[in-house]
Design a protein that fits this description.
single chain; 184 residues; alpha/beta; Rossmann fold; five-stranded mixed β-sheet; 3 helices; 21% helix; 17% strand; disordered C terminus
Length: 184
């Protein structure tokens, strides 16, 4: 008998594939009711930021990737919000959040994320979930908080935020990196 004929193939059902299958819960939410805006003072300057908040419980902060917005998490938010306070933001320069006052980097976005979370009172128990570039930013924010708690010299203080590895001299003058210190 030839191979792969109906009598020789496995009769077992294929494994479940739920990729791109949604329960549609996110479509039934009036997202306008959950949209918020906050102004965050960080090394990026005073930056208004758009975000969405849904649910109650231990906090979860969702950080989108490059060219993304909080909407990248549309299907995840309702599921997580069943047991958590979920916050998903538009990073400065993305989605509905305007460009920051000062040039951005992963380190400066990390500083921004820490200030944003502190401003919302998210606290130590916050689960931080980042996608792509948002993962790098989340990691940087975690490093900053960890170093600050340890009193490490490696933590990113506001007065150093744009000088360490960002192409600026201590004099505050721009060099090839084009970065500036935050205004005092």
């Amino acid at each position: 008998m030839p191979r792969n004929t109906p009598s020789t193939r496995s009769q077992a059902a294929p494994p479940a594939d739920d990729y791109a299958v949604s329960d549609g819960e996110w479509l039934r939410i009036d997202w306008a009711e959950h949209l918020r805006e906050s102004t965050v003072d960080s090394v990026l300057g005073e930056t208004p930021v758009s975000y969405v908040e849904l649910g109650q419980g231990p906090p979860v902060l969702l950080v989108h990737g490059l060219s993304g917005s909080w909407r990248n998490w549309l299907e995840n938010i309702p599921y997580l919000a069943r047991r958590h306070r979920v916050v998903a933001l538009d990073l400065p320069g993305f989605g509905a959040s305007r460009m920051p006052e000062y040039p951005s980097s992963i380190k400066s976005y990390g500083n921004f994320l820490v200030k944003f979370a502190d401003g919302l009172g998210l606290g130590d128990g916050t689960a931080l979930i980042g996608h792509s570039m948002g993962g790098f930013i989340s990691t940087e924010a975690t490093i900053l908080v960890t170093d600050a708690r340890r009193g490490s010299r490696n933590n990113l203080r506001e007065d150093e935020a744009l000088t360490e590895g960002h192409g600026q001299t201590d004099s505050g003058d721009d060099d090839a990196g084009g970065c500036r210190k935050p205004r005092a």
